[in-house]
Design a protein that fits this description.
Order of helices and strands: HHEEEEHHEHHHHHHH
Largest sheet: 3 strands, antiparallel
Number of strands: 5
Shape: globular
Length: 247
């Protein structure tokens, strides 16, 4: 069974879990190799050590990489005066939870014309600052052809997003329902949203505390959703062993 409490730093040997945790790579392969809204099966291959996850079929060729989508800001110098108000145990809980499977996602990892990938743009764009809720709002707008701070980058990967049909299909495929309102068409923002007009980074202790709680709630809810999705799909002990943490 996929362990929704497993901290992917555990087997990354001190390196970035997104690229060095073998357990995370196996989990991604299992979770996201499944039937698309079109009814076609989207399989992900890990046989090439130089490619994190790959797919090649009549649907196209896709190279995917992992991204930790919950930014804790605990290592940001500019926020030390804020994060320093929290206990070390509270900061570690935040980071540990962020590195469970509920805090991880995959995006296309190939550069198009030498420009930023989605992962890169999420981090470098000052109007996003690695926030998954703002990223998801940009993806929502991509599907309805509205502008956003990430529009040029997302447009470069339109073939990937077209696999899922529409925003609802994308959200369902990647089990992101806990970051979307019940209407399925608006985002549950982790901080008050003002249409990308001000800094997306928490500005004081109270805003960071609220951001932290909402992030933890989302990751834990998505972990439960992942566990519920996985449970009927791994009926045997041998299958459970196949996707447990790597030693």
């Amino acid at each position: 069974m996929i362990d929704i409490t497993f901290d992917f730093r555990t087997d990354a040997k001190g390196k970035d879990p997104d690229s060095h945790s073998p357990t995370l790579r196996k989990y991604h392969q299992f979770l996201w190799s499944k039937t698309l809204p079109s009814g076609r099966f989207f399989s992900l291959d890990t046989s090439d050590s130089k490619r994190y996850l790959s797919h090649r079929s009549e649907l196209g060729e896709f190279l995917l990489t992992s991204d930790s989508v919950i930014h804790t800001y605990t290592k940001w110098k500019r926020l030390e005066s804020i994060t320093g108000q929290f206990l070390e145990s509270e900061k570690e809980e935040f980071v540990r939870t962020a590195y469970t499977i509920g805090g991880m996602l995959v995006f296309p990892g190939n550069r198009v014309n030498g420009m930023n990938t989605i992962n890169g743009e999420r981090g470098f764009n000052s109007r996003i600052c690695d926030r998954i809720d703002l990223t998801l709002e940009c993806i929502r707008r991509h599907y309805v052809q509205r502008d956003s701070p990430m529009a040029p980058t997302l447009n470069r990967y339109s073939d990937f997003f077209s696999l899922f049909g529409d925003f609802h299909g994308y959200v369902d495929y990647f089990l992101l329902q806990d970051l979307v309102e019940e209407d399925g068409a608006s985002i549950k923002f982790l901080m008050p949203f003002d249409d990308f007009q001000t800094s997306p980074v928490p500005s004081d202790v109270s805003s960071y505390a609220e951001y932290r709680i909402r992030c933890l709630d989302f990751v834990m809810a998505r972990n439960r959703r992942i566990a519920d999705w996985v449970r009927p799909r791994i009926p045997t002990e041998s299958a459970n062993d196949s996707f447990g943490p790597s030693n």
